[in-house]
TrEMBL record:
Pfam families the record matches: Terminase_6C, Terminase_6N
Keywords tagged on the record: Viral release from host cell
Protein name listed in UniProt: Terminase large subunit gp17-like C-terminal domain-containing protein
Residue stretches making up the Terminase large subunit gp17-like C-terminal domain: 337-473
InterPro entries assigned: P-loop_NTPase, Phage_terminase_lsu-like_C, Terminase_6C
Lineage of the organism: Bacteria, Bacillati, Bacillota, Clostridia, Eubacteriales
Protein transport found in the keyword field: no
Length: 486
């Protein structure tokens, strides 16, 4: 693929893939091709190049999904990278409601985000000839296969899908591409790189075969329309060493990857799909920045986040037969605790863990505890934001509003819990492992450190959840709704 245009100096600009894996990705005949592996393999650039083969078709449209709009617009992200390519080909961009590049022929390339599961329905009725996902592991399996049904075409381009990703052994993508991964090492099997396999999906189950004929026979597919249900898939691995341009222009990047934890190096430097997080990968006691006997005087923002589990010992029998609205936040787990973690943001950007509460109480006692703690925190530290989780559904919303009314006079935010616990903990974990989190000396330290070090394999995660949510709020995380009274 080679496109030329002229600068004012008449020096030609050549836009083309790099030799090797990037070229292999762009040449793949697969209906679905996933370009994945370590960081820095030139994956996003390859997606942007893929669109160029169709830009002379006035009816052509491509959509590239990222999980969130900030990922699209961040420095060095999807939009910034596209600005290095598309303007040279006469394209202009608009930024709302989605980022969209419009080429002179009328062809369009849209950058869209899909954070919440329900946002997939925003695309109901769409026809997307070229459907693309940047960081496929950030999307759920149901989001992918719903959008798969939108991969249709009336513009003359046979519909197909392209995606990129970094390794995530716990994602559905790891299962989807398992045939291309060495089961012993967790690295991509280079002998299978780029090879095609075929699947058909029935009743949410994927059936694989080495040839389409095997699936035609197994599922009695005889008409051309029925045969179209069988799709080809390929996986192409990528590493930083496959991106000669980045190695040349940013030779220090490999050093940055080597400075990460062992787990992150295996994923992002070596492309390991089988490695799993284990105890100690997210939090280590030895990584605490500094232990303080008293609270620093330079804290500029305070947040107390709660993780609610209002089921006390012996209360389980009371849950049977209760209406759902009365069972909200009662997890059915006698080991669950209610945790409240107070974090402060210091002037120098460091995080301070000032107080941790971890109790097993019934619902009424928990409500009183939260109210009393809000009074104490505000008396001691000034304006302390209280962050509370909100369960999905009307019952969760009603309960959240009830807490907000109870906490009249205090700054309160509530937030829908999205994503898994590990994903929510990662921002706080990154600060912890970088040594940017200080902790006050107190009798709760050992229990707190023990739970953090056991995460995510430990049974109890309440203090981790509360810490993660408090950190998100400190960093101006957007709540579902917020209130400030008085």
């Amino acid at each position: 693929m080679r496109k030329k245009t002229e600068k004012t100096s008449n020096k030609p600009i050549i836009i083309r893939p790099q030799q090797g894996k990037q070229e292999m990705f762009l040449r793949s005949p697969a209906d679905i091709c996933i370009y994945g592996g370590a960081a820095g393999g030139g994956k996003t650039y390859a997606l942007l190049l893929e669109c160029l083969r169709h830009i002379d078709n006035k009816l052509f449209e491509a959509v590239i999904f990222r999980q969130s709009r900030p990922q699209i617009m961040s420095a060095g992200g999807l939009y910034a990278t596209s600005q290095e390519i598309y303007p040279h080909l006469g394209a202009s961009s608009v930024l709302t409601p989605n980022v969209q590049w419009r080429f002179q022929s009328g062809a369009k390339v849209t950058f869209a985000h899909m954070f919440y599961e329900k946002e997939k329905y925003n695309w109901q009725g769409s026809q997307i000839p070229l459907l693309m996902f940047d960081e496929l592991v950030h999307f759920t399996e149901s989001q992918f296969f719903y959008m798969f049904s939108r991969n249709r075409s009336t513009c003359g381009v046979r519909p197909y899908i392209r995606a990129t990703c970094n390794p995530d052994g716990e994602s559905w993508v790891a299962r989807f591409i398992d045939w291309w991964i060495d089961p012993e090492t967790g690295y991509a099997d280079e002998s299978r790189c780029g090879k095609l396999r075929y699947f058909i999906r029935r009743n949410n189950i994927i059936h694989w075969a080495d040839t389409p004929q095997q699936l035609y026979e197994e599922f009695h597919l005889y008409s051309p329309e029925e045969m179209e249900e069988v799709k080809s898939v390929s996986f192409i691995s990528a590493k930083l060493t496959d991106n000669a341009a980045m190695m040349k222009h940013d030779p220090g990047y490999i050093g940055a990857l080597k400075a990460m934890s062992e787990f992150d190096q295996e994923q992002l430097l070596n492309g390991n799909w089988k490695i799993r997080r284990s105890a100690g990968h997210y939090f280590k006691r030895s990584k605490v920045g500094q232990m303080f006997r008293s609270t620093p005087t330079d804290v500029v923002k305070w947040v107390r986040a709660w993780d609610l589990a209002a089921t006390a010992p012996g209360e389980m029998d009371e849950l049977e037969g209760m209406p759902q609205a009365m069972r909200t936040n009662r997890r059915g787990d006698e080991s669950a605790y209610t945790a409240g973690v107070l974090l402060g943001k210091r002037k120098n950007g460091r995080v301070f863990v000032a107080d941790v509460i971890n109790v097993r109480e019934n619902g009424a006692d928990v409500r009183q505890l939260i109210l009393n703690t809000a009074a104490s925190d505000n008396a001691l530290y000034g304006n302390v934001t209280v962050r509370l989780p909100q369960d999905p559904g009307q019952a969760g919303k009603d309960q959240a509003q009830s807490f907000v009314r109870m906490l009249g006079g205090y700054t309160v935010t509530t937030s829908l819990e999205s994503g898994d616990k590990v994903t929510r903990a990662e921002p706080f974990s990154s600060q912890w492992l970088a040594g940017n989190v200080d902790v006050k000396m107190a009798d709760w330290n050992d229990d707190y450190f023990r739970q953090l070090e056991n995460f995510p394999v430990g049974k109890l995660k309440d203090m981790v959840d509360a810490s993660a949510n408090a950190y998100l709020e400190l960093e101006n995380g957007k709540p579902e709704f917020g209130f400030s009274f008085g």
